[in-house]
Amino acid sequence: MDLRFTPEEVAFREEVRAFIRDNLPPEIRERMRLGHPPRKQDTIAWQRILNRKGWAAYSWPKEWGGPGWSPIQRMIFLEENLSAPAPEMLSFNITMIGPVLIQFGTEAQKRRFLPRAANLDDWWCQGFSEPGAGSDLASLKTRAVREGDHYVVNGQKIWTSTAHNADWCFCLVRTNPQAAKRQEGISFLLIDMRTPGVEVRPIISIDGSHHLNEVFFTDVKVPVENLVGEENRGWNVAKYLLGNERTGIARLGKSKERVRFAKEVAREVRKRGRPLIEDRAFRARVAQLEVDMKALEITQLRVVSAYAKSADGRPDPLSSVLKIKGTELLQATSELAMDVGGPQAMPVWQQELAQLANEPPIGPEWAPQMAPNYLMLRAASIYGGTNEIQKNILTKAVLGL
User: Fold this and answer.
1) Residues 6+ positions from 386 with CB-CB distance below 8 Å
2) Exposed, middle or buried: residue 152 (CB in 10 Å: 0-12, 13-18, 19+)?
3) Residue 326, CB half-sphere, CA atoms under 13 Å: how many?
């Protein structure tokens, strides 16, 4: 298998890199370089810039507003976007609800929701997990009872990322509790978050941020026209959503950017009177990470190349390797950046308390965000399919055990 990029792919990378360099607002780039998560307005602004170029919906076909790129082009684009660093496109819009509507939606649903999703006129969230129904998603209990031309929804979702920002939620609900199998009797609904009876309660995570939420539905009326696919066949839609987009799952661009940043600031930090970048142990640690990233990059190229050539378009089970090693590298590179900051990489909210007390900032501007980044990425090996589940997939599908 030839794992070299073609001249056309090399030219495409240069085009993407130049566009990001010339169009990403400097204040957004700098905030992200210093480790801050993108604000809502940052994500909206950047996604709309990309959408004007026709690139925001990078995995969609041209007929619905995407660029019609190959899997290799998508991989290159995602890596360059993360390496910039720039905000990621809102995954709920681009790699989840967009492809689902293209595959299962009615023409009316496609015309109504797809352009707004690409331009982030609507912010979507995902209503899947519930208390007691996380990895075992088929045990969900949120009910939807049809009454005439609408469903009445009652139940609770949890760990709902960015629900406090969201205009819409795509939600799994149980429409037939008597179904013989739990996977049967589940439907896929689109719920307007402004509907009476929808309540969002914040969950503050270990990094001190408000990213996660609980969502409660109390007699929420959802028009039947907001059903995606067939009633009681929502499990098929959910499986498609969860397995659809594996191109950028390794997030190598982010790991590369964090190592590059750590090396940059290690020139400022001193250890025993010398720049940390000259420390042999630090250099060996960086070298090992760079070797691991190169190995994963080659594996990613193999997986994406094989996917591009497959007749059925089914994801390669080896994509689980990308998820496992990709998240391990995200965690390792964020730990590297935190360790460079040392004691000064304290959580940012402690720095804010110091400011309220009229105390001077502790250490360089970049340091306080490093510990929260490290803490938040502890969850990277859980969300998107736990690494333990990914290992089970590899055991069965690749090793045949």
Assistant:
1) 135
2) middle
3) 27
290 burial class (0-12, 13-18, 19+ CB within 10 angstroms)?
A: middle
- C-alpha span between 113 and 326 (Å, rounded): 32
Alpha carbons 301 and 278: distance in angstroms, whole number: 33
Catalytic residues: 245
**Which residues neighbour 138 within 8 Å (Cβ) at sequence distance 6 or greater?**
182, 183, 186, 235
Do 35 and 29 form a contact (C-beta atoms < 8 A)?
no
CATH code of the domain made up of 124-239: 2.40.110.10
Q: Are strands 270-271 and 274-275 parallel, antiparallel or unpaired?
A: antiparallel
What is the sign of the dihedral through the CA atoms of 204, 206, 209 and 210?
negative
Query: Residue 234's pLDDT is what?
Result: 96
Bridging pattern class, strands 168-174 and 124-127:
parallel
Determine what percent of the chain falls in helix, strand and coil, rounding each to the nearest 5: 50, 15, 35
Q: How far apart are CA 160 and CA 158, in angstroms?
A: 5
Within 10 angstroms of residue 207's Cβ, the number of other Cβ atoms is 20
Tokens of 66: 């995407």
Identity of the residue numbered 203: I
Topology, domain 246-397: Butyryl-CoA Dehydrogenase, subunit A; domain 3 (1.20.140)
For tokens 């056309």, the residue is 8
Average pLDDT by stretches of 10, the chain with 401 residues: 80 98 97 93 98 97 95 94 96 96 97 98 97 87 97 97 98 95 95 98 91 97 98 94 70 95 95 94 98 93 76 67 92 96 73 61 79 90 84 84 77
* Helix 7-23 and helix 71-83, axial crossing angle in degrees, nearest 10: 40
Domains of the chain: which residue ranges? 7-89, 124-239, 246-397
- What span, in angstroms and rounded, lies between the C-alpha atoms of 280 and 283? 5
Helix or strand run (H / E) with residue 150: strand 150-158
Closest listed residue to residue 161, CA positions, set 243, 227, 82, 93: 93
Token pair for 396: 């069965």
Q: Which residues 6+ apart lie within 8 Å of 318 measured at CB?
A: 299, 302, 303, 306, 394, 398
- The number of beta carbons lying within 10 Å of the beta carbon of residue 55 is 20
Per-residue pLDDT, 306: 76
